[in-house]
Amino acid sequence: MPDVLTYVLHYEGAFNKNSLGAVSEAAARAEEIGGQCHAVVVGGDDLTDELCASLGAYGATKVFRARGAEGLAQPVVDVMAKVIDEHGHAYALFGGGLLGFEIGAGLAARKQAGVTMEVTSVRAEDGKLVAERPILQDSKVSVSRYRGDLGIIIGRINAFEIVSRDGGSAEVVDVEVSYSSWSEQATMVQRGEQRGADVDIEGADILVAGGRGLGKAENFQLAEELAGALGGNSAVAATRAVVDAGWYPYAAQIGQTGKTVSPKLYIAAGISGAIQHKVGMQSSENIVAINKDANAPIFEFSDLGIVGDLHKILPKLTEAIKAKKG
Amino acid sequence: MASSANGRMHAPIEYPPPVSSPEEFVKRELDSEDDRIEVGVAIVGGGTAGLACANRLLQLLGDDPAMMEQLGEVPVAIIEKAKTCGGHSLSGAVMRPRPLQELFPQLTREDWRKEHFAFGEVTKEAVYMLPTGKTKLRIPPPPPFKNHGNEVVSVAALARYQQRQAEEGGAYVLTETSATQLIISERHVVGVRSGDKGRGKEGEELSNFEPGTDIKARVTVLAEGCWGHLTGAAIREFNLAEGREPQVWELGVKEVWRVPKALDRVIHTIGPWPLKLQAKYGQIGGTWLYPMKDEKSGDDLVSIGFVIDLDYADATTSAHDLLQLFKTHPFVREVLEGGERVGWGAKAIPGGGYWSMPKLSMPGALMVGDAGGMVDTVALKGVHHAIKSGMLAAEAIYAHLRRGTSLSSYEQAVEESSIGKELWLVRNTRQPFQRGFIQGGPMVNLAIATKGKLPPGRMQWHRNDAKPLFLGDTYKNYPKPDGKYIFDKLSSVYISGNATRDDAPNHIRVRRTVPREIADGWRWMCPAGVYEVPEDAPESGPVDVIVNYTNCVQCGAITAKGGRLTPPEGGDGPLYRLT
Amino acid sequence: MKICVLVKEVPDAAVEKRIDASTGRMDRSGEKNLNPYDTHAIEAAMQIREGGTAQVDEIVAVTMGPESAVRALHKAVSLGADRSIQLTDAALAGSDVAATGYALAKALSNEQPDLVLLGQQSDDGECYTIGAVVADHLQMPSLTQVIKMDIEEGALRCERQAEYGYDTVQIKLPAVISVGDAINEPRYPSLKAIMGAKKKPLEQVGASDVGIDTGLVGEEGSRVQCGDFHDPPAKAAGQVIEDEDTDETVQKIVAWLEERKLI
Questions:
Q1: Counting beta carbons within 10 angstroms of the beta carbon of residue C74, is it exposed (0 to 12), middle (13 to 18) or buried (19 or more)?
Q2: Which residue in A109, A185, A307 is closest to C172 by CB distance?
């Protein structure tokens, strides 16, 4: 049977949204090729029967549950390899996020399987799954077809929509796995540590986001002042590069490893628009970008692009908006 | 016409840049043996001329293994500040083919095109006068404009080819390396020092600071191109410009377009449009359109450019914007319409010609190509002279190493070669233009018609920075950028591949407070938008100048108009490809 | 300990990237460079060597790629690697990520490294994955996207950003770690190191030299076939303003926002 196996990430008793999207996608595509969607979960006591069975609501028919370390990829590879060996899944599909990349890649090595990452769309073709992936800064789309017994699909973050179905409940199967020695060489010391101030950017209607183009940490003030002038439910967000550089707190980070937002207005200041950032904000209703690089990718998906020096534009824009609002 | 508050007009020369060449750019002592690098011949600048010198020298050394051996582990080192040789190279460029054929006799012109640095032989040509922005007048090509049989090349691509040849021949090519000091010991050039890396905005050492290194060489070749940093230091140190006319400069801005329909001829226009005819503007310039067939991709390309003498007086003269203005002429639109701009760049050109060339050798060193001022700005040609001079330098160096002959034999060789002969013919041709297009025109024609016999004697140049600037109205004609056909400076800088580290030290030396017209002169002149005048600055009198040096594409024009370009950290600047 | 650093030659950031219609692969003509992320991996190796906690006997740069990739290795050596290995073989051309990781793992297994470092991503596409592929073949633990790494007795303490915040993971050696660009500020090579790079040992090995099963690599051995390149669905182009007069620009922005009732 051409079944599709997915991995579902969880943290503190709740499933990851991208993983739920992956389950929905896997279920829909599996049906098209005459198979079922199964899920793997790995963790401790918080993976209750009830929680696991709830994945049925997204289309999973079976959930394989293994006890193991959380937040690390290689134990999951061990579990998935075993499940695939025993059940002969034809595809493994992952939602976006760092663990999906690591598990998918590790599994590809283990099972000598083909792997495609950054997938934005999957379709059935002659009883097989075909994955589409944007390449070259999203200027082209490439189509992947698989050879061999197993094909691995790693989604781009937010690529797969969560679809709930009525009344579904998945069968929960416990799996005993003897982990490989190298999986056990890694230990989670601390998981999910929050650094810096806590900011709510997911709930904001207006976001002013700053990137490397701001030049230095102090210049986030320009973004904060603009957000202040715009008023209402506005907040300041940041790219991964500047968060990693310590300019702004992690909680404000947008993108692949940060938060996904879709405010009414997104003002990107000094952000080039790398894919990793784009995936976290592209569903914003209105995107305004200010960048001195006329060729910055962000202009390709902004509704209003300003080619110019943000250090000159932001203060004046703040003033103008303040004046307008009286 | 606005002038300064006190009514006097100011020339940039009155505001010399804060530079002390002998102290800053010359090092008087070599570091100890452990700390320095020793090479046979050090060539500063991996452009067409420097690489031609390397190519020829390695051919000679290839036939003389004993000499090669004697030069040590690094017989030839090429020091290039761009990411690759050719990365900072830009020229028209329709080239007279002979010197390159002499340098690589085994290559056919078909091979050149396969190697992707040549783009076709000129078979048709046209010269136009442009009375206005809508009309044109075809004129028979004056002799210097005859290009039949010449080859359209890209010096950026040619240098890359020459680099590969040099490396195969045994040269070390040190890219991303600036040469910042000339090392002179006992009145003898003994090498150069490479620039520091990892300094911050204020010159402070960052965590990854890496100091420069002394490179000791038996012979040093200055092949820095237009406005060589060390060339200037050498000229001052050894008094090489004594008894010569001052050098004068031109500025060229160029675009490369991919077009739907091949252009079938080489086109030059000689104005007066888009320039102003009246002498007070001091504007002399011209344009070109060259077809380029990319044999590899099959693309039809067009090289389009505008060159202006940096002797103009209207401070609002902008070569970049004048090129954009030129593109609005209907006949140009016809050529470019439906196409896409794929390249942009700018470069200053030494324009003085024969009388302005410095003495080309000094103890331990010599200069080649544009560094030595070997450009024929009447015919708009320098690439073939660059190659020829590099070859002659290589031969003089080889003779010097082999037989101990003086490096000054190179000067005689240049004089007797096609370089000397061609530059002699046009020695007095362009000077009259310093009096304006109308007054100077007949004299220029006379010089061309008599193949340089008239006017007799030696025509003088005055320095570009001695020309007073005024705030005129040239800028009023510049078209508004639309980002598709007409481009502003910033978006142009970006397609040049410019990547200068944001927190690097400023490499441009200018006075920070100058009269408004000089500040505006820099602002308009710079094709890369480096200079800015604060929006709230007074209309006249002294103003502060903002220097956005990370935009700089190192064209060198500022040096002609009162500033000084010094080499930034190696690896910074544009990455020209098809220019 | 011995550290191997995986490096890769990629097109320079300034070069326009496009698919070569004749081969269906990326057009790799034009300027190439050592992948900038890999310079962070080399720097991380150098900092371990210079940190004094662990005795680093050797740093070896390893690449897979055509003849021109030698330049990337010279650069890696000039930045501190002691020697380098180039895995180059016509049979490897067209390998997908899984096949590339397999081939690199084969080249690495001869070296018996205690630590394999690499950059987490490259400009030319495949990101975040190669480390995990290599690790599984080498049967080593791995962690990607690491932004802080401290060496302890026989182990590494690594930090990275994951789905729910910063994770700290302890990993016993040997291990494969891919690093992000926030981990360090790479040094500049000295001129001496650049000139000396050509003299450092560079070993070129073919597929058979390291025991690669050629049925598992190259276009034929790859389990993913990429093709049907096409343009993404066109998005209505946004408006672009080039800022010349900032006051005017700002007015236009405000008008734009007002029109959409955003202020």
A1: buried
A2: A185
